[in-house]
Design a protein that fits this description.
mainly alpha
Length: about 90
């Protein structure tokens, strides 16, 4: 997959992570989508590095999507823990 595919995958994974983990985010929609993009890269890296499951070269591979969504969820949780109270209600 190319860089543009990872970005698109990250955008979609960020939206899915937001749906799975609803609530107010300190960064709003833009922050959540950027976390989704970063989460796709992190999830793919973790999958290839420690889970011995290299990322497929297909955009439609289920394991690639799970790694991207999982990475997005992890980063979104960490982001909320670190910056969750910084946004005014």
């Amino acid at each position: 997959m190319g860089m543009v595919s990872w970005i698109v995958l990250g955008l979609i994974a960020g939206v899915i992570a937001k749906v799975l983990l609803p609530g107010r985010d300190p960064g709003g929609l833009v922050g959540t989508t950027l976390i989704g993009i970063a989460g796709a890269f992190v999830g793919g890296w973790i999958s290839a590095r420690w889970l011995d499951r290299p990322v497929a070269h297909s955009f439609y591979d289920g394991a690639t999507w799970m790694a991207a969504i999982g990475g997005s969820l992890v980063l979104l949780i960490i982001y909320r823990i670190l910056f969750g109270n910084s946004r005014s209600r």
